[in-house]
Specification:
The protein has 420 residues and is an alpha+beta fold. The chain contains twelve helices and eleven strands. It starts with 17 loop residues before the first strand and ends with a strand.
């Protein structure tokens, strides 16, 4: 609908060319101020297309028929409304007066519409500003929604990435294969580097478990030591050490020697069987005469007989206890009894005497206190005698049975001559 004239008019029919109203098609003079049918402004508002002769409003950019460019387009509405005079009205015929009255009413309506049109002038493409404003609001709303969606997506993606990184770190520090497989199942869109690292770690742990199973089944100390050397930080480290401890203990028990128990105790200072090893070692020491014990016992009897050979009373008394259980059948003998024995065997015809101990010791030991032992000793000795009377005995053999106390002093001494 074209804008109507905004003033009350009286139609003045001047002579002019009859045209069709561009708005409603009603025949009207091109000089008529408004169309009496639709009330649209005519005079000064129309143009003829030089291309096809079509009549159209001169504010249109192109001909509505052939679309020829309108070079006479108005840039501003400067035409003044045409006002019909009263005289012109009187000159109208009686038939035209009702039409004029109707035109006044129509013109008034056109004026109101024109005011509204003036408040919202049309744009170049014929759209009203409020339509453009509506489009702008719609575009702005769309942009805001797009921005909000982008921000929400950013934070969602950031939270998802953070969660995935934490799960990755946990899986890489875990030795549980189910934890790592759960990561691969849950984060299928994780970075390829993360998935490759998890997969490689799973394969390594599987190999470690396989090597551990082989070492464990073998029951070999060497295999277990090789496993620990290859995987020093394995989760089976403590279990492997306990297994080695058990193997070494079985070896010590099977050997059942002081040396075997000593080796176990030295290699497993905090081993599971250290207490048992010490007890076993103690029991063995209570039964088995050690080399140092044998040396000390043979030394005390060697000194005993050397002292007799040299008639050294003091040295002789150092080899025996102050109170002996038995000495050559005498109960409760003293050191003086031993010295008396030495002096008694040197007869008047004996010029020299030498005792020789045969290295045929038989020694038994018995625990008599905490770490203290008594030794029962048997051995043979030979007596060589130099005499002034060649007819008397010059050599004799004896079987000696004696006991030595924890202080390595002779506590009991008896001899029996061996007859050839």
């Amino acid at each position: 609908m074209r804008p109507k004239h905004n003033a009350t008019t009286t139609i003045n029919y001047n002579k002019g060319m009859i045209i069709k109203c561009p708005e409603c098609g009603h025949q009207i003079s091109d000089r008529a101020p408004v169309c009496p049918s639709c009330g649209v402004e005519i005079a000064g508002k129309i143009a003829r297309c030089p291309q096809c002769g079509e009549i159209f409003f001169n504010d249109q950019a192109v001909c509505p028929n052939c679309h020829h460019t309108n070079f006479q387009r108005r840039t501003a509405q400067t035409a003044e409304p045409v006002v019909a005079t009263l005289a012109d009205t009187e000159q109208m015929s009686n038939d035209e007066k009702p039409k004029a009255a109707n035109q006044k009413v129509q013109v008034k309506q056109n004026n109101e519409q024109k005011k509204a049109s003036d408040n919202n002038p049309p744009t170049d493409n014929g759209e009203k500003p409020h339509k453009r404003k509506g489009c702008a609001v719609l575009i702005a709303s769309f942009l805001c929604a797009l921005i909000i969606c982008g921000v929400c997506f950013y934070y969602y993606n950031e939270a998802k990435t953070t969660k995935e990184n934490k799960a990755y770190e946990y899986a890489m520090t875990s030795t549980d294969l189910t934890v790592m497989q759960s990561f691969l199942n849950t984060y299928r869109d994780a970075s390829q580097a993360h998935r490759d690292s998890i997969t490689a770690r799973m394969e390594r742990l599987k190999q470690i478990d396989l090597d551990w199973t082989n070492a464990l089944v073998s029951g070999s100390k060497t295999a277990l030591l090789d496993y620990l050397a290859k995987y020093p930080e394995t989760a089976h480290k403590n279990e492997a050490k306990r297994k080695i401890d058990s193997i070494d203990w079985r070896m010590a028990v099977n050997e059942n020697t002081p040396e075997g128990y000593d080796i176990y105790i030295k290699e497993h200072e905090f081993g599971e069987y250290v207490e048992e090893a010490n007890d076993s070692l103690k029991r063995l020491k209570a039964k088995i005469v050690q080399e140092e014990e044998r040396s000390a016992i043979s030394g005390v009897f060697r000194k005993f007989f050397q002292s007799i050979n040299s008639k050294d009373e003091n040295a002789l008394m150092e080899t025996v206890s102050p109170l002996m259980t038995s000495f050559l059948g005498k109960q409760g003998a003293t050191k003086n009894d031993v010295v008396t024995f030495m002096n008694k065997i040197y007869k008047e015809d004996i010029t020299n005497m030498n005792w020789h101990i045969n290295n045929d010791y038989k020694i038994d030991k018995k625990e008599v206190g905490d770490g203290e032992y008594e030794y029962t000793v048997q051995f043979s000795a030979r007596q060589d005698i130099e005499r002034t009377d060649p007819n008397k005995e010059k050599q004799a053999k004896y079987r000696v049975k004696a006991k030595v106390g924890p202080d390595k002093k002779i506590t009991e001494f008896n001899m029996t001559q061996i007859m050839d």
